[in-house]
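Quarterly update, task 2.4: pyridoxal-5'-phosphate-bound model.
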Amino acid sequence: MKRQRSRALYKEAQNYMPGGVNSPVRAFKAVGGTPLFIKRASGSRICDEDGNEFLDYVMSWGALILGHAPAAVARAIAEAGRRGASFGAPTKAETELAQIITRAFPSIEKMRLVNSGTEATMSAIRLSRGFTGREKLIKFEGCYHGHSDSLLVKAGSGGATFAIPDSAGVPRGVSRDTIVARYNDLDQFSRIVRNRHREIACVIIEPVAANMGVVLPAHGFLLGVRELTARYGIVLIFDEVICGFRLGFGGAQTLYGITPDLTCLGKIIGGGLPIGAYGGREEIMECVAPCGAVYQAGTLSGNPVAVSAGLAVLRTLSRLDYGAIEWKTEHLCNGLGERLRSKGARITINRIGSMFTVFFTGAGVTDYRSAKKSDARAYARFFQAMLSAGVNLPPSQFEANFISFSHTRADIDETIARCAGKAKR
Ligand SMILES: *Cc1c(COP(=O)(O)O)cnc(C)c1O
């Protein structure tokens, strides 16, 4: 497979951008080699500058549930662009998008559009602090909520005592207000909340974790978190930036029947354009300026092009049957699992809806620690073999694969065949 152009472009990009990229995971550090420079994509296929074509399971990190460049979305973007890229004033389409989102998520009574998932979680946390008058927050180890200071932390040596920065440049003073708990450990969570509830403004969680690879909530875990936060007046934030409109039209909260106080959305709701949203109980949302005292704003928030793309995606999605992509995901996981095990690999596949992760460990993966037991080098070899066979997987063990409505049964069968090394390239 030719990689000359990607190599040359990567070299040139490094002269101008740190690591040659605008987001670190794109640089292939976890798997080695040169990142592909993408020229175009359509449906389930993505093409690089060297003219190679790949079956894509990254799908812009889950944002593209309809596949690459679906006609309805491409048309909506072009038409919105002709009407004007930004006005800095309200538009009818923003209300239309809010109507679809609030109908899909009954827990969202009022909402705000922002420009990224990071902005959504950051704003939801400030709002929780403003609403409760408390300052600390709990996050779970291995969950990712964007790159704002309070959320870029990891567990300190004392376990659930206080967090330490997970990045240079995050002040210790900020990270000390974040408590890191273990995902799926309700006993530990309950101890923390009972001891410290007077200081805790909010709990933020990925209801299905997808940023340590896919990790499902254990039976009763989300319900336990909901009951404890409700009992102590702590704001429960579901970060559904990935799960929202992915695990069904009403996200993880509908699937599991849990009502959070606030929800963060992103990715899918922008159809590949930059967007985010946060919303929830009216009583809380009314604390946001100009109604209330919590300030939050954005020059490009509710951008008409992004909103048009999002509307086109959600209107299409509302008519589709999620069972179709779930079934394909199951078929793919069974096929990949069989091939890899027959070659002697020890793997665990976690799967829900249209997302999955192949962990290179024989033991179950239920939290960050068990995810970290995976053999990341074995994953890197798998990644490179699949890439050479024309299949684009996420360039890290600790990420989710995504299937879109544009992936066909034939695509899935071809992917399984390529895993077996049968396909000629
Ligand atoms: C991607 C992601 C974010 C951050 O969104 P950006 O648009 O990258 O800022 C936040 N939370 C979760 C769960 C995500 O997967």
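Highlight for this quarter: The longest strand covers residues 159-165.
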